[in-house]
Amino acid sequence: MSGPAAAIPPQPRAKALRACLLCSIIQTPADFRKHGCPNCEELMQMKGYPDRIQACTTTHFDGIIAVVDPETSWVARWQRVSKYVRGMYAVRVKGRIPEDVEAELESRGIKYRPRDQSEQD
């Protein structure tokens, strides 16, 4: 059950938390700046770029799920995060990824599905 995991943000910083628009992981802006997104850094390229963090994450999200064992969790499968690292995830994220990231996903044959639950599976 061990493996890569995102840090659990401390309580006093809860109002500053941001959710990745692609995978919905929740971290502090400092964690995104220092480490990038643990799931989709290759596409989002946020590490060390505050402007990119602003474009690729949001403070507008609903609900939080703690995913401890993504591979066996039915909630992780339901939220489409079962292949991602352990951590805190938003149930619903408001906003869309930047057009360049969406184009990159499309070029790789990956269909982008917003995490605001506007498109149901």
UniProtKB/TrEMBL annotation:
A GO BP entry: regulation of DNA-templated transcription
GO cellular component, one term: chromosome, centromeric region
Compartment(s) where it occurs, according to its Swiss-Prot or TrEMBL record: Chromosome, Centromere; Nucleus
CDD domains: Spt4
SMART domains, A to Z: Spt4 (SM01389)
Molecular function GO terms recorded: RNA polymerase II complex binding; zinc ion binding
UniProt keyword annotations, A-Z: Centromere, Metal-binding, Nucleus, Transcription, Zinc, Zinc-finger
Domain of life, per lineage: Eukaryota
Domain Spt4/RpoE2 zinc finger: 17-94
Main location: nucleus
Family designation: Belongs to the SPT4 family.
Chain's role: The SPT4-SPT5 complex mediates both activation and inhibition of transcription elongation, and plays a role in pre-mRNA processing. This complex seems to be important for the stability of the RNA polymerase II elongation machinery on the chromatin template but not for the inherent ability of this machinery to translocate down the gene.
Subunit (UniProt): Component of the SPT4-SPT5 complex. Interacts with RNA polymerase II.
Protein name: Transcription elongation factor SPT4
Organism per entry: Obba rivulosa
Organism classification: Eukaryota, Fungi, Dikarya, Basidiomycota, Agaricomycotina
